Amino acid sequence: MARVRVLLFATAREAAGRGRLELTIPEAGARVDAVLEELRDRYPRLAPVLATSRIFVNGESVARRTAPLAPDDELAIHPPYSGG
Amino acid sequence: MSVLLTRRTLRVDRAYAELARGVDGAVALFVGRVRPDRGPRGTVTHLRYEAHRPVALTALTALDRAARARFGASRVVLWHRLGRLGVGTASVIVGCSAPHRAAALAGCRHLIERLKAEVPIWKTEERARPARRRRARPSPRRGR
Q1: Domain span holding position B108
Q2: pLDDT tens profile B61-107
Q3: Is A9's CB within 8 Å of B91's CB?
Q4: How many other CB atoms are found less than 10 A from the CB of residue A17?
Q5: pLDDT tens readout for residues B18-31
Q6: So what's the ipTM on this one?
Q7: CATH number at residue B37
Q8: Which of B58, B122, B123 sits opposite A59 (nearest CB)?
Q9: Which of A10, B74, B121, B129 has a CB 3.0–4.6 Å from the CB of B51, allowing a cystine?
Q10: Mutation test of the interface with chain B: which of A13, A14, A81, A82, choosing the one with the most B Cβ atoms within 10 A?
Q11: Among residues A79, A76, A62, which one has the least CA distance to residue A7?
Q12: Domain total in chain B
């Protein structure tokens, strides 16, 4: 099993009711989309937010949601930015 | 410091001093402030800003480099405030110095637009509920 840390910001945090959490997923299928699926199951209100969010793994933007994850990776959910 | 995420007050005089350290002929500054937007859910009283700090600092540093390369900017300021800010408070200062005004102004505009689109910073609104209109009480009829 792979433990993955998840950071949630702004509307993602509001939808989940928390800003950070840890998930344990099977190491064999440890991919970004598996984590997102788990998040949607746990927090249904996150689904529409995830649809418009960018995903970062260990501080790097992830283009494909099939990207693999390693144990202790940090996955961050970035809803559309609104600084300024 | 050209790139900054801080909970402390942003000072325009310090941003100007940072940009005016060289001998450039032009300094352009933009200051974004919290405005009291009105809507059906009330009027904005505060904005709460948060950031994914390490990713935001990397993105701001990339913007700084890009502005120097693209506009020939000598100095750049990209400062963003975090935390709960009241109406009228400066939330962002962006600035650019260059030998001439065209580059400084274009660089400054470019920086604020890209900051808003590409840097992981978010704001959440706090609004005061709109005051309910009181129904005027019908005046008691006076007997004649």
Answers
A1: 3-128
A2: 999 999 999 999 999 999 999 999 999 999 999 999 999 999 999 99
A3: no
A4: 11
A5: 999 999 999 999 99
A6: 0.94
A7: 3.90.1170.40
A8: B58
A9: B121
A10: A81
A11: A76
A12: 1
Nearest CB to B116: which of A11, A14, A81? A81
The token pair at A60 is 């790097």
Is A81 in Cβ contact with B52 (below 8 Å)?
no
The CB density around residue B88, as the number of other CB atoms within 10 Å, is 9
Helix B101-118 with B53-71: angle, nearest 10 deg: 150
Token reading at B108? 């400054």
Chain B from 1 to 30: CB within 8 A of any A CB: none
In chain B, where do the E strands start and end? 3-6, 26-33, 38-39, 42-51, 75-81, 83-86, 90-98, 121-128
